[in-house]
């Protein structure tokens, strides 16, 4: 099968995000300029640089109470900070509860029961007990082609690692089993790993 996205795929559901899979989930926490809190998952998320460490996530839809975007991007525009909370399998239902189209006044921490803790370097809350939290300062917001498509880039200025996830000096993902997004309504979980040496190592 071959199709041009501009012509449509002819399938019952769009296969695009099932092709680019699995995708890590950036569970983004932000604080609005009025002090209200927001927590939402984004599967267009990844690390993009080592030095300095940088991450990005993309928001691809809008809410009527936020104009051209969603709560996360709107808050980051105002405060220029955000926190990425890593999602473990055990928190899948809590994370999913925060993915709804809640109005801007809803505190998803309270709604989902996710415990919050203060960040160390930025004025924002993080998910307490997450395997890791990345405190970020905004570097750039890019408006991408298409309606409501924004890519948010941030420099990581603080890192929290849960102590039980550190094994012999290595952050061991099998201690918490990362949750990843697939296509449609599907997710997967990391339960095994293997190593490959690069040529010449």
UniProtKB/TrEMBL annotation:
Superkingdom, taxonomy of origin: Bacteria
For the Flavin reductase like domain, which residue ranges apply? 18-173
MF GO annotations:
FMN binding; oxidoreductase activity, acting on the CH-NH group of donors, NAD or NADP as acceptor
Q: In its UniProt entry, what is this protein called? A: Flavin reductase like domain protein
